[in-house]
Design brief:
By secondary structure, the chain is α+β, with helices and mostly antiparallel strands. The protein is 22% helix and 29% strand. The protein contains 3 helices and 12 strands; from the N terminus they run ααβββββββββββαβ. Strand 2 and strand 3 form a beta hairpin. The longest helix has 22 residues.
Length: 236
């Protein structure tokens, strides 16, 4: 004798499985893009951020994207700056380790600003002007990994790998607080918002834009609003 209940349950199970297969195979990019758009406001709230830089790309492998700045006003996120072209890592987003050529994805606090130039007029962020003695350490074996260090000696005798902060791309820059609480050796270091080489040249993993757009963004950022950054992909 057949079991109608068993058939019913089997049919229901097959329907659910089919729906899962369709969802996970065909519109995965739609789901992920929608997930990013829905999740960053929640994560911004967890950071108590009322101001957030949003970087969106067309896919996880894109080398370019668009940047916007949002502020929370009366419980709603309002766009105050939009459609700023940016370049990112040559291998897209989703950084997992040092040297993978990817830009971090997710939501992170923004740190201080710095640069080789004098502090821009009207800037509210803390700003440090760099010198030839300023380095960012990306030697994963060093106790100073992913930290800014001022050192007057020979850096080659102290670290296997480092970045000089006195360089043209860092005429103006903002620290992206990736992998700093806690610092995990080898997870990635020295992630900044900075000036791009060209509109078509990817970074080593940072987020870059034109000098004029970077200055525009920097002057709008307000430490009192606990600015953060959200990076992900969203379809357009």
């Amino acid at each position: 004798m057949s079991n109608p209940g068993f058939k019913y349950r089997s049919l229901a199970t097959m329907t659910v499985l089919l729906a899962i297969l369709i969802f996970t195979n065909l519109p995965l990019s739609h789901a992920s893009a929608a997930s990013f758009s829905a999740s960053w406001p929640y994560k911004a709230d967890l950071l108590n951020a009322s101001q957030i830089v949003v970087v969106e790309t067309k896919s996880v492998l894109s080398q370019t994207g668009l940047l916007s700045l949002r502020e929370k006003q009366d419980g709603k996120w309002i766009s105050v700056l939009s459609a700023i072209p940016v370049t990112i890592g040559p291998n897209g987003i989703g950084k997992t380790k040092e040297g993978d050529g990817r830009t971090p994805s997710g939501v992170y606090p923004l740190g201080q600003a710095f640069g080789t130039a004098v502090k821009p007029q009207g800037l509210m962020l803390q700003y440090m002007r760099t010198t030839k003695s300023d380095y960012w350490v990306d030697d994963r074996t060093s106790a100073q990994y992913n930290q800014w260090v001022s050192y007057s000696g020979n850096p080659d005798q102290r670290w296997d790998s480092y970045e000089r902060l006195l360089q043209p791309l860092y005429k103006y820059a903002i620290v992206l607080r990736y992998n700093d609480d806690p610092i995990i050796p080898g997870k990635g270091s020295a992630i900044f918002l900075h000036v791009w080489r060209t509109a078509n040249t990817p970074t080593a993993g940072c987020i870059a834009m034109s000098e004029s757009n970077l200055l525009k963004l920097m002057k709008l950022l307000d430490p009192a609003l606990s600015p953060a950054i959200a990076i992900g992909f969203a379809l357009r």
